[in-house]
Amino acid sequence: MPDNIYLPELARITYIKEEVAGERSIKTFRVEPVNGDSFEHECGQCAMLSIFGRGEMMISIASSPLVKDYKQFSIMRVGRVSAAFHDLAVGDVVGIRGPYGNSFPVDDWRGKNLYFIGGGCGLAPIWPVITTAVAQRDSFKNITVFYGGRSPRDIMYKAELEKLRGVADVHLSVDKAEDGWDAYCGFVPANVMDKEPSSDNAIAITCGPPIMIKYVIQNLRSLGFADEQIYTTLENKMKCGLGKCGRCNVGKDYVCVKGPVYSWAELKELPEEY
Amino acid sequence: MINVRDIRDAARDLLAKGEVRAVIGYRRGSRGMAAEPVVITAPEQADELVWDPTCFHNLALYLVEDRKFLAHSRKAPGAPIAIIAKGCDARAIVVLMQEHYFKREEVYIIGVSCEGVGVLDERKLAGHVPGTPTDAAFEGDDFVFTTPEGEKRLPAREVMADRCLECRAPFPKEHNVVFGEDKTGRELAAPFAALARFEEQGATERWDFWRRQFERCIRCFACRSVCPMCYCDECVVDSITFPVAPETTADEKANRIRWIERSAVRSENITYHMTRAMHLAGRCIDCGECERVCPVNIPLRLLNNKMEREARERFGYEPGASIGAASLVASFNDSDPGSFIR
Amino acid sequence: MEKILHKERIDDWISALTGWEVLSPALEDGIWAYRPVSGAIRLDHPNTTQPPKGLAFPQREVFFSFEQIKGEAPRLTQILPDTVQRAVFGVRPCDGRGAVRMDRVFGDHVEDTYYQARRKNVAYVGLACNQPPSANCFCLSVGGSPVSTDGLDVLLTDLGDRYFVAAVTETGKALMTAANSLFDEPADADRQQLKSVHTEALAQPQRAVHNPDAVPAKLKASFKSPLWEELARACIGCGICTFLCPTCHCFDINDEVTGSAPLKGNRVRTWDNCQFPDFTMHTSGHNPRPTVGARLRQRVCHKFQYFPENFGMPQCTGCGRCISECPVGIDIVSVVNKVVEHAG
């Protein structure tokens, strides 16, 4: 932690790619520190990105901790700060502070079958676990990725997902079929049920719209997954990222400190206020 | 003299017959002697209702909250909602109807006259009454307080709120049923008397005074939150709500204007209070709640009174006088002053 | 270190505190507030409307300024608080305990740069409550007492024509030794009087939270209770309870732009309030606490359940301000008692 916990480091944007176009477009950004080395992070942790004059936003770090050169973020254009991000160009300098929150216990999962279940821009928070697992492929058993969007145009990380097919099972889906789409048509939780993942020696990691998470967890439990085998990552409105501004708590836990990563076993003990 | 049993009977009756779905009134609070607002829905709850000098709250606020709740949950109102309304509160209800916030038939007004004695200003009580009173009651032109050291009777005019002293409409003219006598015409102080006293000072002294007040403001927004007329879902000057629907675009969120910063410094506080006073011009019925609730004793009434005196003197306008009247800023008469138009 | 200070010497003590800015209660426009001492000090206040938390946690804190010429990297200039030492006289024990709780929030996990910079320069000279300052005091229900020294550097007890002065911390000792000659050694009679004054203070009636030890578990079991909406029915959603509370610490961070070409401004922290409707509202419009009941529940559970679960002590210190100042009479003692009673 730096001396001044609220003073961001400066980071230059070195890469921008539009993943999803349209009204709620998603762009992927890569940033590199302007001065010195970037901070290290673990899978699941987040960072506060600043656009000076606009404000800050808390966002999951989408790149693996194994990648040292840059930090990757995929940002959906939904509000004040994210809209300003979408107006930036390569070379622009933003602020960054972090890493915040807890992380996925990836080391505990070595030797297990991993099921990743993402929807919309919820793929980004779990992407670092996927890429870390793939980079250390021999440490894990089967890797399966379920991912869906509203339509084929809403699928992010298309090229990266195609590249995974050699080392992982990838099951894409769209809510509404369109011409040319020959994969599953339906909601992500339904796609999961359709493929019947086995709970044997398995961990399921899910992230997406709250309604999707709710049904994914329901379906996984009906497939025999224990509460300790299901992991998710929460989001909440955040300002400080350090458990002080009092805003992001679910019960006694500040999501920016004790979360955002939770197993269902832990999450079900907290009040249902998220 | 009003017998509170009559008020309770009326409320009980309306609820039992299903004529109204709820009654907004006052009940005994749990801290000291002050009454507190209550919304009762069952006939047996009518026994909780009270009527005493601590019934100072403007309950019209809860009509607004009820309307917002219905809109948010997309429920039709169904039966009307009843409300206990003093003369001042009834005028607030009339303003809300003038502005088409709800229709007359959606509200059942149980008028209760203060019978010219107004309600208590707790701040004026200090020094008059030994110990902390546990009860307050109306008795003719007096308030009677029950304290640990016995009963203490005070002429109401010594401890009634300033806005009551100056009030010229102490009887709820708009009502479905009314309790208590009409004492319109009893005038204890001239209208806008507190404002006139304040204006005896020169401009420099007045500005120094307001500078000090606005430095003390902590922007708790109690003044705005308690005002029935400040019903905007999103306050133009500093909002603590932002209605977001699935169709609200990123641009709408990004381009939302911030007129003032959250910093509770003099410049921002002045802008907040002045803007609010301007937006209440011709709408404020001087219930005085904004001033009562301010935790740092800013005499906010003076700001609104200034605007209302302008409305009265320049445009002959009195807010809340009758439902059919057009609102001040939404109407124009040929006789309106026009010398500023060049 | 324990001494006696005759009341007529207290102004001399304050004058001896060179190097300290001394604040004490002052009555202005009917409001008691801590102000720099001017003239003779007054300690006949009930409690101040606002607690002294603003000294370490002001309503507005500028973090840094930024300047950005188009095409260049932004320049950030850290703005740290001043280093003025401030001694506050007349702090009630509930507010001292409030400081203890704020210190945990802003010190645990990581240290808050700005709070710590201010806090280390603030000293609290407390005044024991021979009588409850408010009809709504309930410090005894939350582990406090009218003679508690938690969070204070010195505790004064009023013995009539003199104060019993007890140092609590090294800072407190330093404040006293700065004016050594003004103090007398306590005699046996002084100590006896202190004991009886304190005993009487502890016996004064207060509001009471029933069965305080059972409260956290009962609140936990009552999360889904419909009572919350009912108890919050009159709430108008203002910031009085939180802004006046000695332990409420929620804040917002915003960029205040002061110039556009080049872009100039400050990143600023301001008090925020969990009772404001959009406090927890996501950009998407989803709000985990969309109703007044949910927000009342948050405040009460934070004070009486979540904070105890995290820090082993109730967050509420029983000062009673939220009860006295709530425009519509929402009464935290009554709320807690009702929810606990209903929980069975």
SSE arrangement:
The complex is a heterotrimer of chains A (274), B (342) and C (344).
Chain A lengths: L8 E12 L5 E8 L12 E6 L3 E6 L10 E6 L3 H7 L6 E8 L12 E7 L3 H13 L7 E7 L8 H7 L4 E6 L9 E2 L2 H8 L6 E6 L2 H13 L7 E4 L15 E2 L2 E2 L6 E3 H4 L7
Parallel strand pairs in A: 7-8, 7-11, 8-9, 9-10, 11-12
Antiparallel strand pairs in A: 1-2, 1-6, 2-5, 3-4, 3-6, 12-15, 13-14
Helix pairs in contact in A: 4-5
Chain B lengths: L3 H13 L5 E7 L6 E6 L19 H13 L8 E5 L1 H12 L8 E6 L9 H4 L9 E5 L2 E6 L2 E6 H4 L2 H4 L11 E3 L13 H6 L4 H14 L5 H5 L23 H5 L11 H14 L9 H5 L7 H15 L27
Parallel strand pairs in B: 1-3, 3-4, 4-8
Antiparallel strand pairs in B: 1-2, 5-6, 6-7
Helix pairs in contact in B: 8-11
Chain C lengths: L1 E5 L3 H7 L3 E9 L2 E6 L23 E9 L6 E4 L6 E7 L1 H15 L5 H7 L2 E6 L26 E5 L3 E6 L2 H8 L10 H16 L11 H7 L5 H5 L8 H4 L7 E10 L2 E9 L20 H20 L9 H5 L6 H12 L1
Parallel strand pairs in C: 2-6, 6-7, 7-8
Antiparallel strand pairs in C: 1-9, 2-3, 4-5, 4-11, 8-9, 10-11
Give an overview in words:
The complex is a heterotrimer of chains A (274), B (342) and C (344). Chain A is an alpha/beta fold. Chain A has helices at 80-86, 123-135, 158-164, 188-195, 210-222, 264-267; strands at residues 9-20, 26-33, 46-51, 55-60, 71-76, 93-100, 113-119, 143-149, 169-174, 184-185, 202-207, 230-233, 249-250, 253-254, 261-263. Chain A folds into two domains: 9-100, Elongation Factor Tu (Ef-tu), domain 3; 106-233, Rossmann fold. Chain A has six helices and 15 strands. In chain A, strands 10-9-8-7-11-12-15 form a seven-stranded mixed sheet, sandwiched between helices. Chain A has a six-stranded antiparallel sheet with strand order 4-3-6-1-2-5. In chain A, strand 13 (249-250) and strand 14 form a beta hairpin. Chain A is globular. Chain B folds into two domains: 1-189, no CATH class; 192-321, no CATH class. In chain B, strands 2-1-3-4-8 form a five-stranded mixed sheet, sandwiched between helices. Chain B has a three-stranded antiparallel sheet with strand order 5-6-7. The mean pLDDT of chain B is 94. Chain C has 344 residues and is α/β, with parallel strands linked by helices. Chain C has two domains: 2-203, no CATH class; 212-343, no CATH class. Helices cover 31% and strands 22% of the residues of chain C. Chain C has eleven helices and eleven strands. In chain C, the strands form two sheets. Chain C has a seven-stranded mixed sheet with strand order 1-9-8-7-6-2-3, sandwiched between helices. Chain C is flat, with a radius of gyration of 22 Å. The relative contact order of chain C is 0.16. The chains are: A alpha/beta (274), B alpha/beta (342), C alpha/beta (344). Chains A and C meet through strand 13 of A and strand 4, strand 10, strand 11 and helix 9 of C.
